[in-house]
Amino acid sequence: MRYQLREIIDNIYGKLTSKTRISRRFLKRMTQNRIENISGVLDLQINQSADFKKNYIYNSGNNTLIIGKDTVIRNSIIKFSGSNNVFSIGNLGLIRDAEIHLGDNGNVVSIGDRFDSGSGLTITSLEGAKISIGNDNMFSRNVIIRNSDGHSIINEFGERINMASDISIGDYNWFGEDVVCLKGANVGNNCVVGIRSMLTKGEYHDGLYVGIPAKKKKDKVKWNVNR
């Protein structure tokens, strides 16, 4: 079932009344999104100042989408397949041409304020694991964040050995183009991750990291958005 405009607005702000004030600009932006609700309830909590348009939202289950003040999300796919999943982004964020998938049940993907991503961002959260991204992070193009392998690897005793694991990314980190961040990565603050590097399970704090898997090359570095 595709949501109609009035259903979308009712979902965000409750049943409309004569006292409900919704800007025409917001209404125009919302009509430019395709939202398919296959089953369950999609709880949309979208700030009216958010520039949310030309996106495709797929929902199968009871899930929540939260978008903060003055955040821009365009030309992106957000897919919920399962229930009790939450995707949230804070204020003044920028996401474009991204693909975000929360599968299975109980996943949480949370992004803080002033998040800036280049095109081609991919975020995948499965098996009820979490992805937490703090404030003031900048991702270049084609960054991949995923907390599950997506398929099972079984040992000789018939036991699965590759369970999903949470990912935590702190504040003020810069990920270069084509960086991959995998399950179990714990990235602190003030990290620079070089082009095509891979962050695997482990600790990364306050330094320059490059390679596959990424290794610290310089300690106590700082970065600035200006050249």
Task: Chart the SSEs and their pairings.
Layout: H1 5-13, H2 24-30, E1 34-39, E2 42-46, E3 51-53, E4 56-60, E5 63-67, E6 72-74, E7 77-81, E8 85-89, E9 94-96, E10 99-103, E11 108-111, E12 116-117, E13 122-125, E14 130-133, E15 138-139, E16 144-146, E17 167-169, E18 174-175, E19 180-181, E20 185-187, E21 192-193, E22 198-199, E23 202-204, E24 207-210, E25 215-219
Parallel strand pairs: 1-4, 2-5, 3-6, 4-7, 5-8, 6-9, 7-10, 8-11, 10-13, 11-14, 12-15, 13-16, 14-17, 15-18, 16-19, 17-20, 18-21, 19-22, 20-23, 21-24
Antiparallel strand pairs: 24-25
The overall pLDDT, averaged over residues, is: 90
Helix content: under 10%
The biggest beta sheet reads: 8 strands, parallel
Give the overall form: flat
End-to-end Cα distance: 48 Å
Q: How many domains?
A: 1
* CATH architecture annotation name: 3 Solenoid
Number of helices: 2
Structural class: mainly beta
CATH class: Mainly Beta
